[in-house]
Structures are given as structure tokens and as C-alpha cells.
Design goal:
Blueprint: E1 2-3, E2 11-15, E3 20-21, E4 24-25, E5 32-33, E6 37-38, E7 43-48, E8 56-58, E9 64-67, H1 68-76, E10 82-95, E11 108-119, E12 127-131, E13 142-147, E14 161-165, E15 172-173, H2 175-183, E16 189-190, E17 198-199
Length: about 220
């Protein structure tokens, strides 16, 4: 899943205070997994780039903000993989592009995606690794670039939203979750098949051609 930028529902969230707690640690090797957690009170500001507010936003600590409508439909449909559902107080809305003054935002809730069961299949994932894997549980690596991912058979139990072991920073969803968002017309994200997922910020996989030099 990837945030859909520059669309009608482009919305960003910024916590008002650095209320942070300890990051997750691998139960096997003790290494830090992911970022520092976000602790109450859950407060912050919205930055509205589009016309309307989005139904889902990633929060800087790795959690998600979802609208109350999203949460009610998610539970009613029996989907899994999100926990918490804690209310978030929106202190202010800032319009970041020209447009009419926004109305009051919807109610947002803070949720955490599942982590711990599904794991990347390192032999079938195409990852340029800078830091070798030392732990078979958390499978933490230092990826330089990614050109497609795969889950290890038998590790995924059907969770609809999760972060896989081996790539905590990637948020994955089931096909059922994708159909759910389409059915309820939920906004602010798009879909990438995991075998088509590309992350190459340094252009290590697909370097840009060097323009010819002039002799003048």
C-alpha cells in the first residue's frame, strides 16, 4: 500500500508533541525494530493539500490514522490486522494549497498494524542488501534498493493489514482489504503488488544515464 499524493484527498498529519515511548525490539536478538512508539495524548495538526480529508494517513511512528467511518466499516466487515483505535484530537487544520476554507475534519482514530507473524522470503525477494541478515526472526537488513518482495510460505495467516518481518517499514494489505476500500470508496491510498514494489532512492538498480559532456 502506498499513499496517494497530489490527489483530491491528499492530507498529512503532524503530532503536536514528541510523546514517544520505546521502539519495538526483536524477541530473539533484542535489536530495535522500527521507530519510537507514539504515546498519549494523541494530538496533532492536519495539513490539507487536496480538496477533502483522506480516510487513512501514516503517522510518523509507524501507526496509522483512520477516520471513524473507516474504523466502523473495517470492524463490520470482519477485517483483521489493526488494533488500538484510540481517538486523536485534531488541534488545527492548515490548508497548504489554494482552495476554499476547509470544514471541520472527520473524527480520526490511531491504530497499529500487526507485526510479528508474516515474514519476507529473502531467497525470493529482490533486495540489494548493505547490511547482512543476522537474525532469522526479525530478519533486519540494511536494504540499499528493492525490486520486488515475496512472503515466506506458511508465515502469513491472512491478516488484512500488517508489517512483515524483514521489512518493518513496508505496509502490506490483503486483496480482501483492497476490495473493502473499493467497496466503501475509502480514499488516500493506492495499491502496488508486492512483486512489483520498487524502492531505489539512490538509483542503484536503474541509474539515470549520464548526459554527454560538451567539448566546447
Amino acid at each position: 500500500m502506498k499513499k496517494l499524493t497530489e490527489g483530491q484527498h491528499d492530507t498529512e498529519f503532524s503530532p503536536s508533541k514528541a510523546n514517544v515511548g520505546p521502539a519495538l525490539r526483536c524477541p530473539q536478538c533484542g535489536e530495535t525494530v522500527g521507530m519510537l512508539t507514539w504515546e498519549p495524548p494523541f494530538q496533532g495538526e492536519l495539513e490539507l493539500y487536496g480538496k477533502d480529508f483522506g480516510d487513512l494517513m501514516q503517522e510518523p511512528s509507524g501507526g496509522l490514522l483512520v477516520t471513524e467511518r473507516f474504523a466502523e466499516d473495517f470492524k463490520a466487515e470482519g477485517l483483521t490486522g489493526l488494533s488500538g483505535f484510540q481517538p486523536v484530537e485534531i488541534l488545527r487544520v492548515r490548508r497548504k494549497r489554494r482552495g476554499p476554507k476547509p470544514g471541520p475534519p472527520p473524527r480520526y482514530l490511531y491504530v497499529l498494524p500487526t507485526y510479528g507473524q508474516p515474514a519476507l522470503d529473502m531467497s525470493r525477494s529482490h533486495i540489494l542488501i548493505h547490511k547482512p541478515m543476522r537474525c532469522t526472526w526479525c530478519r533486519a537488513i540494511g536494504p540499499g534498493a528493492i525490486d520486488g518482495l515475496a512472503l515466506e510460505p506458511g508465515t502469513w495467516n491472512g491478516e488484512d493489514v500488517f508489517r512483515p518481518r524483514g521489512m518493518w517499514g513496508v505496509l502490506m494489505v490483503s486483496e480482501r482489504f483492497m476490495r473493502f476500500t473499493e467497496k466503501h470508496a475509502l480514499s488516500h491510498f493506492t495499491w502496488i503488488p508486492i512483486d512489483k514494489y520498487v524502492w531505489d532512492p539512490m538509483q542503484l538498480l536503474y541509474p539515470q544515464p549520464v548526459p554527454p559532456t560538451s567539448n566546447c
